Amino acid sequence: MSKFSVIVTVVMLVLSISAFGVYLYSDIYSEITDEYPEITLKNDILSLSVTSTEKDYLENVTAHDAEDGDITENVIVESISPFDENKVRTVTYVACDSANHVVKKTCSLIYTDYTPPTIKQTQPLRLQKGGKTDGILKAFTATDVIDGDLTGKIKIESMPSTDEEVFFPVSISVTNSAGDTSTVTVMCEVLSEPKKAPTVYLTDYIVYKKSESFDPMSYVDKVSSAVIKTIDGHLTEETIDISNVYWECDTDLTTADPGSYIVTFWTENSAGIIGYTYMTVIIN
Which residues form the domain of 86? Predict the structure, then answer.
């Protein structure tokens, strides 16, 4: 073998060794840089208030990356799931390192002060026979400890018909962003001449309470002036005192089981026209 051939062989061998070294280093470095960051939870179950901020949620996590070190400041709350059947939500955290490696971690969330959405009724549901019903939802408002005002999300399951004079139940519902739905059943009345019937106004038409002492008359606010026809044929207004208001309920609400109950209030004017107002009592 000539001297030149030996030199070429040595050079090729050195280049091959160098190339292998570069490949081996690249492979090892790739394994290091391909390592994903890790999120660590302080608690698997979070107990927080409904008013807690993202900062409160982030206090439950730290994150570390083999290349970047501590990347806790990169962690964000990606999502909070709707409630499951046990009123537990799932919080999903996500973190990203400088190599754009993304990792996620979840924990359970239980609120310490949660209550379901609350529906309020602002006036008696009295409709004109043959009249429109599209304004019925204006008699309701809804609030929620998570979302605040939910009035715009109130739904009525079936719009009542005004073809006949009748009393019938109407179901009103609202759902918050956590997927929790509150539904109340209220009574609606259809009259041919609703303005001629006296009206009992209440401070609350939907009452949420526990099984304890309950005085329905304490919710009577006032009685409207009923319009009646006098002997000479003229229409006039008649004032009715609250003492002439009566009520009844099929259930003793001081001992009733959890559920929804209807209390009926009524009063009568001198023309013999009876006006009814209904309260829905929800016992938790």
Answer: 38-111
